[in-house]
Structure formats: C-alpha cells, structure tokens
Design brief:
Elements: E1 11-14, E2 17-23, H1 29-32, E3 42-46, E4 63-70, E5 80-85, E6 88-89, E7 91-96, E8 99-105, E9 111-114, E10 125-132, E11 167-168, E12 172-177, E13 182-192, E14 195-204, E15 210-218, E16 221-229, E17 233-240, E18 254-260, E19 264-269, E20 274-277, E21 280-283, E22 286-287, E23 290-294, H2 308-320, E24 325-327, H3 335-344, E25 347-351, H4 362-383, E26 389-396, H5 418-435, E27 440-445, E28 460-463, H6 475-493, E29 497-501, H7 520-535, E30 540-546, E31 551-552, E32 563-564, H8 577-586
Parallel strand pairs: 23-24, 23-30, 24-25, 25-26, 26-27, 27-28, 28-29, 29-30
Antiparallel strand pairs: 1-12, 2-3, 2-4, 4-10, 5-9, 5-12, 6-11, 7-8, 7-10, 13-14, 14-17, 15-16, 15-18, 18-19, 20-21, 21-22, 31-32
Helix pairs in contact: 2-3, 4-5, 6-7, 7-8
The structure holds beta-D-glucopyranuronic acid (BDP).
The site of beta-D-glucopyranuronic acid (BDP) has 9 residues, from loops.
C-alpha cells in the first residue's frame, strides 16, 4: 500500500473538490443506476464529513452516493490505472463507468482498485462511490449495542465517545504505475556504533527475475546497492557511516529510492531504533519521554475530513506546549498526518479503531476479531515505514462486564469476560508483533479493567480519570489513588508506563476560586497534579493529556452541547489555562 506519488514514471491526479452527493436511505441507488449520475444531487466537498456540511444530514448514518466525472490524462496510456480512496467511513463501494469495482470495510484506512480495463480515453469517466456508516454491534468500533440502552444511552448510539462522522474523509486519487511496478517497500533500520544500517525489502507486482538498485541520499551521503529480484522480491542493506539519527529533537530524513528497469519510487526514511528497558522507553538507545496528547481528527465544517491548514496549525500548537508525541486515538489518522509527524519529529502511538471492544456473544467477538485483524494488517502495511510510528496500539479501553474502580484487583467473583477478552486481545497483540517485530505493541487499558489484559504489552498504557469520573472535585484523594495505582502497576509489571489519557472537562471561560470541576482552574490543577505525580516516578515514560482539543462527541447528559470538553485547546484552537501549565512542564528551556 505505497502512497501514490508523482515522478517521471508514476502519475497521480487528486480528485479532491466538489462532488455530486445524494443520500440513499432506502438503498435504491444500485438498482436505479445512481452510479451513472445523481438526479437532484447537491454539492459536497471531498474530503469532508457529510454530517457537518448539511444540517439535515447531521445525524444521517445510512447509505449515500458521491459521483464525479474525470478525464484520465492521455499520457497515462499504457500504464496500469488505479482508483484509491484514502478513507470511506465505514464501508465504501467504488463504481467506474457503471461497473462495480469493489468494496472496502473499515473507515480509516486506504484502499485501491485497478480500473485499467474500464478507463475511457476519449471521454470523461464517471466515478461513483457509495458510502455507508450504520452503527452495528459487529463493526469495529461497534454501535447499537443492547447494553447501551438506559440513562447513559447516547444519540447516536455509539459505544465510543466521538461523533460517528461519515463520508469520504480523505482524498480520492487516480494514479498510474508501470506494468511491472514496485508494489511494496519495507525499510528496517538499526544502529551499529556510528553506522546506521538500513535494510530494504522491495517487492514487484509480478514474480519476476530482474535487476534494480537502491540509493540513499542526504547530508552529503550517497550510497548505492544492487537489487536482484527473484520471484519479484529483493533485499539489500546499506550501511550509513556517521549516520544522522532520526529523533524527536532532530527528525532527520534521508531519501531512499528503489529503481527498477521500469519503475522508481522514493520515500523518506529516518534511521532510528525503539526499545524498552526496565521502566524506560529507549529511542536510539537513550531514554525518551512521550509527552503530548490523545487527539481526534475533528473540526467544525470539515468534520473528520482531511484539513491541511488545521493539521499544520495543530502541530504548531502541540510544539508550543512542548509536546513531542501523540496517540492516533481512536483510529488511524491520515497519511499526510504521518508524513508530517516524520518531518516534525513526533513519536506516534498508532491505533486501530478497536475502541470499547466488548465481549458479549461468541459470534460478535469472532466478527470483531476478524475486522480488527484486518485493520492491523492494513495499518501496518500502510504505516510500517514511518520513523514517527514507535508503537502499535491494538485496542483502546476494551471493556470488561464489570469494573473494579477501587483498584483492588478483584471483581467479586463475577464473570467479567476476562478470559474471552484476554484471548482476543492477545491474538491482536501477537498479530501486530508478528507483522512488525521492530516496534512496540500495546493495549490502552480502561480504569478498573482487568490487569491481566496488560500482560503481553511492551509498555503499560493506562487511561485514568482519578479526580474526574472517580473522586471528582477531590484532587488530594485523587492524587493518592493515582500514585498508589502507578506504584502497584510498576511493582507488578516492571515495565514503562504511559498515561495515555487523563483529563477533565472544562468550559473555556468558566473560572472558579476555589477551583471546582468544569472551571479552567480545576483543569489546570488537575493536570499539574498528574504531571507532578509522574515526574516523581522514573518508570512513567509518557504523559498524554486527554484531549488536545475539545471535539464533537455524541449527545448525552455527559456531553454539554454534544462536545467532549477535555481539550487543552477549544475546538477552535484557543488555549485554556491548562495549556500554560503544560508549557511550564514540557517547554521549559
Ligand atoms: C475514555 C475514552 C475516550 C473518552 C474519554 C472521556 O478512551 O474516548 O473520550 O474517556 O470520557 O474512556 O472523556
């Protein structure tokens, strides 16, 4: 799943823009041939969520159609042509010139179909994509669960705390490649004293025997190796003397080019290693702290749609607070986001959309397992070459049937689904580790969940809300509970701990002296308390505040105005007092 690029042998045409759009609540489009064009269509922006573009579509999660026409440039003739969708949430189906080409499920990862035989060279081509985002118990993440009925039910009925935005969220692109193309590249870097070792495996689109070359350039270095493809696969190793290592402080990128007789692909490569030793995470053999945020792809009007100016601005704001890290809570972010992280030196915990996994019936668990494994496969295939990605996260807050909020490690003899959960979660961890033994793997755990679910994690990632959902308003007691739990978990596992979530809803502009819940003062005190507790513990290897910015959640009595207000910044990116506390801790000269 190489990112489509433009060079002298490859082409790329971005179809972002205004498309025709029509909701299809009765599912008539396929029978009525809507793929040929939409009657009574309205304009819609791609990328973007439909929910934020039209008021009547705000809560619409059913089927909808996107259509546009495009020429394929004549210069692409003789090449293989693909249509690639960056993200269609949740299920996307592609039609070209009236023919159904294929479908993809899972809302946050790219998919591409070859359309060479369908292309018209002498006329415009009609491209249609239907997208459907129904909430279902078997999907990942799940919705419309029976258990969600009751006083804490939300609308829409998600199992997760963010708005289920729908639509084409990332660019749709046409691209072309030579007939025998470079299909995949895997880069693994290690360090041998002052040398950087770059091991590259390249795969062709055919099992051919062929020659090729590999070059690495940057910082005055230019290295070359031969590639001998057998059965379409070749490997080579380059040793970079006095390598300039990639890190959060110096995110140096080399250019790596794979060249074959017909094709050429260049990607940016950072030479770095990531490992764990005792209570430390080691980047290039040296301890590093992962300070930053849990985030969301979320903004007014664009919804979950790729928003490049916002992305650049957010990196600036994160840096301003001194952050060097974030988690792609709770789904894979755009490829553009990952590229920027490589360039800006952010350390990423890269997460699949397995948020709030529940362990109810055997059939549901089996289906969610299937989808989650597919998402791990696709995520690793997409992101494996990003130096910024240091850890795979295979689940956020999997949910036992009962919670042990007092932290006594005892469920009172009830069946919490611990065994089923452990089996599924360990299967997910094993898959990520098998696909990529060079990175760390983890599960982000829920407050009061079974500790046995952490056993196979390289890093213990904990979401904890001492002082908010538990002991709200009592920060002294909250601190004692937090410290007690951190010490207990360290004593038990002896592995680095990252607090992947801690946060307090805060209404910007609301003040209190003394500070009370929801005021800016309370959030500032709450965050200070957590950072102090962490600073006193060497085994805490990272602190990620929940959340970077206020974001759209679902409607419930817990979410004022449908927003989760735990942001350190407002939804329009103005700092709350807490941002200054973070600067004090993280951005000190
Ligand atoms: C955690 C979830 C996160 C929520 C957060 C909260 O991981 O998605 O938004 O709590 O309640 O449980 O704010």
């Amino acid at each position: 799943m190489l990112y489509p690029i433009q060079n002298e042998v490859r082409n790329r045409l971005d179809l972002s823009g205004i498309w025709d759009f029509k909701a299809d609540p009765e599912g008539r489009g396929e029978d009525e041939g809507w793929f040929d064009g939409l009657e009574g269509a309205r304009p819609i922006a791609v990328p973007g969520s439909w929910n934020e573009q039209y008021e009547d579509l705000f809560n619409y999660l059913g089927l909808a159609w996107y259509v546009r026409r495009a020429y394929v440039p004549a210069g692409w003739r003789g090449q293989r042509i693909f249509l690639r969708v960056g993200s269609a949430n949740y299920q996307g189906t592609v039609y070209v010139n009236g023919e159904r080409v294929g479908s993809h499920e899972g809302g946050h990862l790219p998919f591409a179909f070859e359309i060479s035989r369908l292309v018209r060279w002498d006329a415009e081509n009609t491209i249609a994509i239907s997208v459907e985002n129904e909430l279902k118990p078997t999907r990942v993440p799940s919705g419309n669960m029976k258990s969600a009925i009751g006083a804490f039910a939300s609308f829409p009925r998600t199992t997760f705390d963010f708005f289920p935005f729908a639509g084409l969220h990332r660019p749709v692109v046409l691209y072309s490649v030579p007939h025998v193309a470079i299909d995949d590249i895997t880069v693994v870097t290690t360090i041998d004293r002052s040398e950087g070792v770059v091991k590259v495996t390249a795969r062709l689109s055919e099992p051919a025997t062929a020659g090729g070359s590999l070059t690495l350039s940057g910082g005055g270095t230019a290295l070359r190796a031969e590639l001998a493809f057998e059965d379409g696969v070749a490997t080579a190793e380059l040793r970079v003397p006095n390598a300039r290592l990639w890190s959060d402080k110096d995110p140096y990128l080399y250019d790596l080019t794979v060249q074959t007789a017909d094709d050429r692909y260049t990607l940016e490569v950072g030479i770095r290693t990531i490992a764990v030793e005792g209570g430390k995470i080691l980047l290039n053999g040296k301890p590093v702290q992962l300070n930053g945020y849990g985030r969301h792809e979320d903004f007014i009007a664009s919804g979950k749609g790729l928003n490049l100016p916002l992305m650049v601005k957010d990196y600036g704001l994160m840096r301003w607070t001194g952050a060097n890290s974030y988690r792609t809570s709770h789904y894979p972010y755009s490829e553009e986001e990952m590229q920027l992280a490589d360039r800006e030196g952010f350390l990423i915990i890269d997460e699949i959309p397995a948020v709030s996994l529940q362990f109810d019936t055997e059939e549901n668990i089996a289906e969610r397992l299937r989808v989650s494994l597919q998402q791990i496969d696709e995520l690793v295939a997409r992101d494996k070459n990003h130096p910024s990605v240091v850890m795979w996260c295979v689940a956020n807050e999997p949910m036992p049937r009962t919670l042990d909020l007092a932290g006594a490690g005892d469920s009172g003899g009830e069946d919490t689904g611990e065994a089923e959960g452990k089996a599924m979660l360990e299967t997910l961890l094993a898959r990520a580790r098998e696909l990529d033994p060079t990175r760390l793997v983890t599960i982000v755990t829920l407050m009061g969940g079974p500790q046995s679910w952490m056993e196979q994690c390289d890093v213990i990632c904990m979401n904890r809300y001492w002082g908010w959902y538990v002991l709200g308003g009592e920060l002294d007691k909250a601190r004692a509970s937090l410290e007690g739990e951190l010490d207990q978990v360290w004593a038990k596992f002896g592995r680095p701990i990252i607090m992947t979530e801690f946060g307090a809803d805060t209404m910007a502009g609301m003040h209190g002296h003394p500070s009370v819940m929801w005021t800016e003062e309370y959030q500032a005190d709450f965050i200070r308390m957590h950072l102090e507790a962490a600073a006193a513990r060497e085994f805490v290897a990272g602190m990620q505040v929940w959340n970077f910015a206020d974001f759209a959640a679902v409607q419930s009595i817990m979410r004022v105005g449908g927003l989760n207000m735990k942001g350190v910044f407002t939804r329009t990116r103005q700092p709350k007092m807490a941002a200054h506390v973070l600067r004090e801790f993280w951005a000190r000269p």
